[in-house]
């Protein structure tokens, strides 16, 4: 645990809402925040994975729901406030890859679904929680973009476009709320050792085809290895913390120098 001079965690007593909390990267983030004293409100549509994360974070509130539903997000915000008081911070991590394929071959329904979860979901979360955050006179939000939100992707075209949108939503929110001392940043993870990366390798096929995709992705990383969920969590905690007090509107790569 990183401690403050009085021996408490950096996030002691702070209420942090997390979407996509059943996922690998949000779970690693939640565990670290809990260890540093945060009170966590966790949201995911997958109730089993949500419960698994909550089991690692004593005292956490769990709220099942869909990030694309304004009603579900409002219910999450209300439940958070009822349990702990207004949120100080928000982490919007829910996201999906969608299907692989060139942009013009993407099914319309899939394109809409990827944008609804990755972009609208992040916007709905910000819309629901920033009014709570502003009651504290300061706060922080971290959205989840991707290196695929900076570079184009020949295969994950809807995903890449949606993450580019998240990076710019981050900047607009940062401008909207800078004068209120609410900082808004995003992380851009590269290929992280996680089920989502595994499923992106699986899109190449099975056996040798899958292995070749994994090896190709690995070869693109200057540091020569995939990242760890905990390494993304460390970046998120930095952006949420007072150590980043003058940092807002940033899309921080956590990618082993992939974007360098
Ligand atoms: N894993 C990686 O390598 C990687 C790389 C770059 C960016 N990212 C981004 O990081 C974030 C977290 O990724 P992860 O690896 O933890 O993925 P994950 O699939 O493990 O977790 C995503 C979570 O979001 C939840 N979710 C999806 N749609 C939802 C919806 N409509 N409503 C509520 N919850 C929903 C899922 O149930 C899941 O628990 C995502 O936004 C992803 O795009 C991941």
UniProtKB/TrEMBL annotation:
<dbReference type="InterPro" id="IPR020904">
    <property type="entry name" value="Sc_DH/Rdtase_CS"/>
</dbReference>
<dbReference type="GO" id="GO:0047936">
    <property type="term" value="F:glucose 1-dehydrogenase [NAD(P)+] activity"/>
</dbReference>
<protein>
    <submittedName>
        <fullName>Glucose 1-dehydrogenase</fullName>
        <ecNumber>1.1.1.47</ecNumber>
    </submittedName>
</protein>
<keyword id="KW-0560">Oxidoreductase</keyword>
<keyword id="KW-0520">NAD</keyword>
<dbReference type="InterPro" id="IPR057326">
    <property type="entry name" value="KR_dom"/>
</dbReference>
<dbReference type="InterPro" id="IPR036291">
    <property type="entry name" value="NAD(P)-bd_dom_sf"/>
</dbReference>
<comment type="similarity">
    <text>Belongs to the short-chain dehydrogenases/reductases (SDR) family.</text>
</comment>
<dbReference type="Pfam" id="PF13561">
    <property type="entry name" value="adh_short_C2"/>
</dbReference>
<dbReference type="InterPro" id="IPR002347">
    <property type="entry name" value="SDR_fam"/>
</dbReference>
<feature type="domain" description="Ketoreductase">
    <location>
        <begin position="14"/>
        <end position="185"/>
    </location>
</feature>
